[in-house]
Amino acid sequence: MRRYLLAGVPLLVFAAIAGAAGRTLYREAAEGYSPSTLPSALIGQAHPVIDLPPLAGLQSPGLQDSGFSGQVTIVNIFASWCVPCRQEHGALMQLSKDPRVKLIGINYKDDSSNALAFLHENGNPYAAVGVDPTGREAIDWGVYGVPETFVIDRDGRILFKQVGPLDDKALSVGLGPALDKALAAGG
Fold first, then answer.
1. Does 2 fall in a domain?
2. What's the domain count of the chain?
3. pLDDT 10s digit of each residue in the chain, 187 long?
4. What domain range includes position 127?
């Protein structure tokens, strides 16, 4: 009898794993759940204090808190060595054409000459670029890696955080609605 019970253990383990996987797949399909979505404790909070020097050789300012006041801002954290940053660059170029928002960049742990070459080669969508060579500033933003994008409302609060590259789905399901909400409020 004991042998039969031990023989059933692998079947029970398999059933538990299959059940967990099935539940996750169901939640993804029915509820829009994504296990790769990382929550941010900063949503609804004021953006962290920011004071970054400009990217040398680029004719745009660095970043200071005053650059956020009174307007809807998109903050994109990028690096020239980041392949997904290159993939999302077209979406950023499109967002930069919207006169209702200000798109700013934080260049993360990057060599300034490489970042400058990246922006010259692909176009510069940013109204301002600050340099964070050590990544210390990004820690305050809760950055896990690049690219990450934030929507900041007119009051300086973080409304949305996108971890990973911007694509059509991210723009229509995540960033787009957050941007619409920010633009509709107070404005």
1. yes
2. 2
3. 677 777 777 777 788 888 877 787 777 677 665 655 555 667 878 888 888 999 988 888 888 876 677 889 999 999 999 999 999 999 999 999 999 999 999 999 999 999 999 999 999 999 999 999 999 888 888 888 899 999 999 988 999 999 999 988 888 888 888 898 888 886 5
4. 51-184
Asked if 151 contacts 158 with a C-beta cutoff of 8 angstroms, the reply is yes
Q: What is the DSSP string of 131-181?
A: EESSSHHHHHTT--SS-EEEEE-TTSBEEEEEES---HHIIIIIIHHHHHH
Q: Is residue 81 classed as helix, strand or coil in its secondary structure?
A: coil
Question: Is the same domain home to 108 and 167?
Answer: yes
For residue 42, tell me if it sits in a domain.
Answer: no
Residue 171's contacts (CB-CB under 8 Å, 6 or more residues apart) are 91
pTM (two decimals): 0.77
Q: Is 129 helix (H, G, I), strand (E, B) or coil?
A: strand
